[in-house]
Specification:
The chain has two domains: about 5-230, Rossmann fold, CATH 3.40.50; about 235-355, OB fold (Dihydrolipoamide Acetyltransferase, E2P). Helix 2 packs across helix 3, helix 2 (about 95-105) runs parallel beside helix 4 and helix 3 packs across helix 4. It is about 25% helix and about 35% strand. It has helices at about 45-55, 95-105, 115-125, 140-155, 170-190, 200-205, 225-230, 235-240; strands at about 5-15, 20-30, 35-40, 60-65, 70, 80-85, 160-165, 190-195, 210-215, 215-220, 245, 250, 255, 260, 275-280, 285, 295-305, 310-315, 320-330, 340-345, 355. The longest helix is centred in the middle third of the chain and has 18 residues, at about 170-190. It is built from eight helices and 21 strands. Strand 13 and strand 14 form a beta hairpin. It is elongated. Strands 6-7-8-3-9-10 form a six-stranded mixed sheet, with helices on both faces. It has a five-stranded antiparallel sheet with strand order 16-20-17-18-19, with no helix packed on it. Strands 2-1-4-5 form a four-stranded antiparallel sheet, with helices on one face. It is α+β, with helices and mostly antiparallel strands and about 375 residues long.
């Protein structure tokens, strides 16, 4: 059973002129969890993070931390840690002094110096930087600088840690390694992380729970596999960047699109004008045949892209829309296709989703 939330947002609303940055955000963040907040540029995710941290005020609504309202509480008294994308380290201080800064000048200014030194060394060891205490932060790698920024935040023992696109400044290989490190550190400390990102892969990999933010609204909240396999509407599916979304209309016996009638596993409603099929669930048939009862769509092969673990192929439909097919090399050898040739695209009827363009608010 889930315990009381560490953070509760009740009706947060924030506008900049005619632009609604946050629109009635109501949300609970569980204690001792890694929560990913996913949103595209302009979705309001940075405004929401800054509002929780106390750097921005809202027009309406309330924020509660462990049940206590934060209205009027300044940022430095909220006991919320923030790790910025650019790390915001002090270049004139070494690793030890950067980590110690918050204890010496903020939350721990009444702690004895010996206790501060012990706490800082323990935190530096926890994030894997033992032996680099006297190294300048200008002389360490990007991943090490991120660990310094994280240690500086965690050493003050915040009740909640906000991570503002913390992997955005790192290269791809380092991002992968740091995903595991962040989860390990969080689990050791038992503090909740709210990880803000524009990367669907990062959100799904990191979050015990994923929150999808869309134009200031909460579009979906759920477990990563649920969000991935059952996006709530077409906009969420588009954020995930792994679905083909085909426009059409509900018709007798299924869904009509691209001159075809696709059978549906369940009755389609008129508020579901988008047919969605994941890129990795499509099979390509040179003969243009499908198993009985499965959908079949003819398309012209355009090109393929090799990305290491997968090959992505693009097919043009009669309308000019493009369908993307992803072949994971761990599953089978990649197929080869002839440019300009027509192929049959098919999938299991149960794998398709019928989605509305945009569902109502979710919490």
């Amino acid at each position: 059973m889930r315990g009381p939330p560490v953070l509760r947002l009740d009706g947060l609303t924030k506008a900049y002129g005619a632009t609604m940055a946050l629109n009635d955000i109501t949300l609970s963040i569980p204690d001792n969890a890694y929560v990913a907040l996913l949103g595209s540029s302009g979705s309001g995710k940075t405004v929401l993070l800054r509002t929780i941290a106390g750097f921005e005020t809202v027009d309406r609504g309330e924020i509660f931390l462990n049940g206590a309202p934060l209205h009027g509480v300044p940022a430095h008294r909220r006991n919320i840690g923030v790790v910025f994308q650019n790390f915001a380290l002090f270049p004139h201080l070494n690793v030890f002094d950067n980590v110690a800064f918050g204890l010496r000048h903020g939350a721990g200014r009444h702690i004895e110096s010996k206790a501060i030194e012990a706490n800082v060394r323990a935190m530096i060891d926890l994030v894997g930087l033992g032996g680099l205490e006297r190294r300048s932060v200008t002389q360490i790698s990007g991943g090490q600088r991120q660990r310094v920024a994280l240690a500086r935040t965690l050493v003050t023992e915040p009740q909640l840690v906000l991570l503002d696109e913390p992997l955005g400044a790192l290269d791809a290989n380092l991002r992968t390694r740091m995903c595991g490190e962040l989860r390990r550190i969080r689990e050791r400390l038992g503090v909740t992380f709210l990880h803000v990102t524009g990367s669907e892969n990062e959100a799904l990999a990191m979050g015990d729970e994923v929150i999808v933010l869309d134009e200031g609204h909460i579009a979906q909240v759920g477990l990563p596999d649920r969000v991935y396999t059952r996006p709530r509407d077409a906009r969420v599916a588009r954020f995930l960047n792994c679905y083909n979304l085909i426009e059409g209309r509900v018709a007798a016996g299924g869904f009509e699109a691209e001159g075809c009638l696709f059978p549906c596993a369940s009755a389609a409603s008129n508020d579901a004008p988008i047919y969605a099929i994941r890129q990795d669930l499509i099979s390509v048939q040179a003969t243009g045949e499908a198993a009985p009862g499965d959908p079949l769509l003819r398309a012209i092969f355009v090109a393929s892209e090799y990305s290491g673990p997968a090959v992505t192929s693009f097919f043009k439909l009669p309308s000019g829309a493009v369908v993307t097919v992803e072949d994971h090399l761990s599953h089978r050898d990649p197929q080869t296709f002839e440019p300009g040739r027509s192929y049959g695209l098919t999938w299991k009827v149960d794998d398709a989703l019928l989605l509305s363009r945009r569902a109502g608010a979710s919490s």
